Amino acid sequence: MIKEVLAETRIKMDITIEVLEDELRSIRTGRASPALVERLTVEYYGVQTPLNQVATISAPEPRLLTIRPWETQMLSPIEKAILKSDLGLTPQNDGKIIRLAIPRLTEERREELVKVVRSRVEEARVAVRNTRRDAINDLKELQDEKIITEDEFFKGKDQMQELTDDYVKEIDEIGAHKEQEIREV
Hints:
- The protein has helices spanning 2-25, 35-38, 75-84, 107-144, 150-183; strands at residues 41-44, 47-50, 55-61, 64-69, 91-93, 98-101.
- By secondary structure, the chain is α+β, with helices and mostly antiparallel strands.
- The chain folds into two domains: 2-25 and 106-183, Topoisomerase I, Chain A, domain 4 (Orthogonal Bundle); 35-101, Gyrase A, domain 2 (2-Layer Sandwich), CATH 3.30.1360.
- The strands form two sheets. Strands 3-4-6-5 form a four-stranded antiparallel β-sheet, with helices on one face.
- Helix 1 packs antiparallel against helix 4, helix 1 (2-25) runs parallel beside helix 5 and helix 4 packs antiparallel against helix 5.
- The protein starts with a helix and ends with a helix.
């Protein structure tokens, strides 16, 4: 029974890690990366659609992104979505393709982005701790229902704490790597 709760908890914590990595990919680092704009939503025939589903996004140079919509009438909505986003980038439209020049980050902007990364990392830590709390509550219910013994409960609780510590460490490493990437000149 404890193994099942641990397995379920591990799955939830893995999802937390995936969400964190996905969020951090969309934070600008001074290098062109298609992940920077993939999640932007564009109005496509009245439906909000992720940009990567209406256009091809590539990084032909270290500081340039190109967005080639599959339909030319999508150029204007894509341009509007980029301008409306918090990326701080100005699209250049030549009638067939949108170019996004990625400017060098100022020191001030780098520090702002580091704060955003730290905030997202802390949110992930909280999510992992909440998952641990829920799992411990599940173990407590199993103990109350006499499905597991008190000793098994405490053993499960210790295993849950070890699992949580491992995931928090991984989250911290992911955050430190992203901070280093942002501070890279």
